[in-house]
UniProtKB/TrEMBL annotation:
This is MerR family transcriptional regulator. SUPFAM superfamilies: Putative DNA-binding domain. Residues 1-69 form the HTH merR-type domain. The keyword Repeat does not apply. InterPro entries: DNA-bd_dom_put_sf, MerR-type_HTH_dom, MerR_fam. GO terms for molecular function: DNA binding; DNA-binding transcription factor activity. Pfam families: MerR_1. Keywords: DNA-binding. It comes from Listeria booriae.
Amino acid sequence: MYTIGETAKIVGLSTYTLRYYEQEKIITPSRKTSGERYYNEEHLNWLRFVIRLKATQMPLAQIRKYAELFSEGDHTAAQRLELLQAHQAFIQEQLQRLMEVNSELDYKITNYEQLIANSAIQKNV
């Protein structure tokens, strides 16, 4: 069991973000009888997954929808699959765009390297 502070440190989020995710129903921590939040390994794994989804630009609304579907049970598996497949398609489009830009950067960098190398040769002549 981890406190909110320990959990924040472990997963690299602020306690504010953890409380916000709870408010947005993205995560539901367990509570002690005193009302204090605590998190277990399952919570940590879920938060790590949420962080990865956010890193790939999945909107919080979609993450919330996924969390809601998950909490409803196995009968929502098809909906969760569809949501993840749509996000994967988005990621693949992003990767394609990044590869195209990377190719353009390679071209520009090569041209500048040649220009600089030719300028250096001209100065040495």
